[in-house]
Sequence to fold (387 residues):
Amino acid sequence: MSRVATLVLALAVLVAGPALGQSAAALAQATAAPPAAPKFAFKSHYLVDFATDTVLASSGADTELAPASLTKLMTAYVVFDAIESGRIRLDDRVYVSEKAWRMGGTRMFIEVNSDVGVEDLIRGMLIQSGNDASVALAEHVAGSVDAFVAEMNVTAEKLGLTHSAFRNPHGLPARGHYSTARDLAVLARTIIEEFPAFYSLYAEREFSYNDIKQQNRNALLWRDPSVDGLKTGYTEAAGYCVVTSAQRDGMRLIAVVLGAPTPRARNDGAQKLLEYGYANFETHKLYSAGQELDDARVRGGESLFAALGIAEDVYVTIPRGSYPQLAASMDVMAELAAPLLSGTRVGEVKISLAGMQLATSPVIVLTNVTDGGVWARMRDELATFWE
Fold:
């Protein structure tokens, strides 16, 4: 855009954007700095806002570590995708191989040569953290564990998990099997976003199979009513790990702890991260996709004006109490000419906090403006003459 018109927009928080990817440190430069994030003796930790991808606390976020049973988040993603794409069904009966039955570690206690429903296996994997269930699902989805693991790694690449590699579907130690706090947060965010119907399974506190009742290992489900997922893990190599998420007043956070020395340290650490985020930051939805922000004169159009808006919801995460320091402006091409198709980009909205830019979002034409023909051009020429 060589010529633009700049308009100041009103900021209205709606009833409910583009991912911003800001950090708490960057926000602190623009406004009163929130308290420092808590520190832990963990291998890695990470706290991020779901809506904006704003990192609120982080240490060793890209350190490649053994993920233990957090691996099952990726296993679940591939299984959920197979269901939604029609490759398998929730009511499928799955043959339990000897390989699945013999799996060590945490189990849901399925019997060799039996048939188990996919839905039961998913619960056994997510709630009871069953390694046997993970293998049975992998074999059902892909025909073999090796083929399923290949799908896990293709999916990791597709999701941009650049510091993750998987060698099995359950998370028991294996050479070259690793992930990071940041990658696991991205994976959790994607599961919540893409599979809302399945996400509720992560909040179930217990599951019984084969007359054996086991509780969900995510103790935060009992501690904090706002917590609704996701998964814990432990091996000697990995230490105690958790990826968890909570939602309060429409603001969702994801917290990751890797390599805690004890279960209590893991749970306390994740809780402290969540409390820090909610106490010191707030997330607002400023504009909705398709919301009309303004209109603009169109030369040669059947209509005189084109309605302008944005293609995506716009959210911001900011330090608590700093909302009055937000400002919004819209740059639009100085001259629009028909025909214009709905969705045509004609400018951008800019959101700033105390002068620091937080977000930009394309401004688009919301409705088609057809060519008005010779009469429209004559009308515009006359209007220009009388200006």
Summary: The first helix runs from residue 24 to 30. The chain has eleven helices and 18 strands. Confidence is low (pLDDT under 50) at residues 12-20.
